[in-house]
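Lab notebook page, bench 4
Experiment: in silico fold of construct C2
Operator: M.H.
Input chain length: 88 residues
Purpose: comparison with the prior construct
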Amino acid sequence: MERTREKFVIGGLEFALKDGENLPKPKKLDEKQEAFLIATACSNPPEGRVRWTMQLLAEHLVKVGIIDCISDEIIRQTLKKKMKLNRG
């Protein structure tokens, strides 16, 4: 219901009732932030850790001031999307 209401406010009744036309979601990370995330994920993990986790990456991006807040799920989705593109 919330999405239908939002579509109605943006585009009127016809737009709200059309199926399959969803509003584009704004990206959580811009290109520079994504590049920093990928470079960090490919770097050595913090001391005392064997590998980077999604939560560690999210905390690191916030700690260095790349973004105010971000979830580990957005980190996972971004890395999944970018790694898929790089494979071919």
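Observations: The chain has a mean pLDDT of 87. The helical segments are 2-17, 31-42, 54-63, 72-87.
Next step: discuss at group meeting.
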